[in-house]
From TrEMBL:
Component of the RIX1 complex, composed of IPI1, RIX1/IPI2 and IPI3 in a 1:2:2 stoichiometry. The complex interacts (via RIX1) with MDN1 (via its hexameric AAA ATPase ring) and the pre-60S ribosome particles. The lineage of its organism: Eukaryota, Fungi, Dikarya, Ascomycota, Saccharomycotina. This is Pre-rRNA-processing protein IPI3. GO terms for biological process: DNA-templated DNA replication; rRNA processing. It comes from Hanseniaspora uvarum (Yeast). Keywords: Coiled coil, Nucleus, Repeat, rRNA processing, WD repeat. It holds the Pfam family WD40. GO terms for cellular component: nuclear pre-replicative complex; rixosome complex. Component of the RIX1 complex required for processing of ITS2 sequences from 35S pre-rRNA. PANTHER family: WD REPEAT-CONTAINING PROTEIN 18 (PTHR18763:SF0), WD-REPEAT PROTEIN 18 (PTHR18763).
Amino acid sequence: MDERAIFHTEYGVGISSLHPQTLGIQYLLKQSSQSSSVCLSDDKSLVFVSFKDKAIINTYKLQENENLNKIDSANKTGEIPVLQRLPTPEPLTNLILIKNNYLIGSAVKPTRTLIYIYDLSSGSLINTIPMGKVHYNPINRIKFLSSKNMLITMADDGRFVLWSLLDLLKNNDEDIKPVYVFNEHQGVGVKDVVFDKSESILLSTGDDGTVCCYNFISNYTPTKEEQKPKYSVEHLVLVSKFTFPQAVVQLDIDHAGRFAICVLRNAEIWELPLIYSMGQGKIANLHSLPMQGNSNKNKASLYNCSLEKDLDLSNDTLINLLRRGIISCRLIAKGANTIKISLDSTGIIMGRKKVGQSCLFVDISTSQVIKDIGTPLGLNVRSDTSEGIFIDEVYTITLNEQLQNNKTFISDMILPNMSKVVENNYKINILNDPASTNNQSVVGNDFEKYIQDHVKNGSIFNAHDTFDGEDLVVEKSEFITKDHRSDELLDQKNREIEDLKLQVARLSKAYSELSEMV
């Protein structure tokens, strides 16, 4: 197994192994400068890259099963070419791939923020969701809680919001309402939301200099003022609130929920303990309520975070410090722009912002630099105006072994091009309800409207979606052929559809000829 990190800067996207025993496997993605976000497929075989100023998504195929035992491949530095370019309506940011099928990204227009949802198997744009009623500022990040099928969006309006994936996949006339809306950051920007491996602990951070810790609690009874959950029996409750002397611009949490790593605005990296040692073998769990139960009197604990060097940490005062709401944090490093904790939680990958600095792999316990993973690829910061280096993801890859599962996300398959518009007549009919079937008729009196609705759009989609365990299955048919009447009426309707298709083709040709004449 090899642990690798994907990171990007304004000069391109790089992939590098973290541990010295792999002797430096480095890749640079071609034509990836000015990238805005990066995401991976579930099997880590395909990379999606979006750009700040280009309405396109580049895809790249990663190398598999490299043989590191050969001398000629012990130090490998290479470039990965673009596999495919997928055009989009406008430049997208915050890319995320869900269930290896749904590619989601956000875009900012002059008057509103939108979320685009694509079905990669067909290339169709399933839904375009305006965020104006929930987020009135651009979205900073998008993340997905797979165990609860919820999407998380966060923005500079001081909110982070949980959405039901099923609601977002629907395209109907009704407003899509979020499941949870949190405003704990006093109306200032929410910069990041992270969660542990079990997805039971959530941490949010913002420009107000606080880190809020939440927990999913099944036996919690919400008050009248609190929002009742729509799709889950569990309730997301604020457990603890940590205050820092500077705004926290990014954070990451240990996979076991033991500690969090925070990047402050002054570029310092602090270690925040969530399992707090008080000395003499005593510990305090800071990410759970002090009193479990069905009581509404449970209040969030408030803590003031300070550095070890500024506190008296003798054993007889640790309990008193905690009772007074003071948490002892440790300074790991300085000069960081973004961070990511490694999968084994022994190190952090930190992107620097200073001129000439790069992406480093640092040991958490000793604060020593283990490896420089950005300079060999030329992705170091080169100017004062650079935004810095951003770490996108850390993942593992199997080496020297054949994959047991041949069902990789992509082999020789080419992804279909992405649609530019959402079909106006796209509906999702829950449980095949015949009352919701779309039966729009052709309007022949308004020729321009007819051309717009039936020629430009091309087809009418009727889809049914169900959850099968964790997998969302969407079935689509090009034209509506499902009817709940007799077979004779169904055949008649199919013949009428074929006649309409011929009529549409003739009118389309006539319209083109008229346009050329004008």
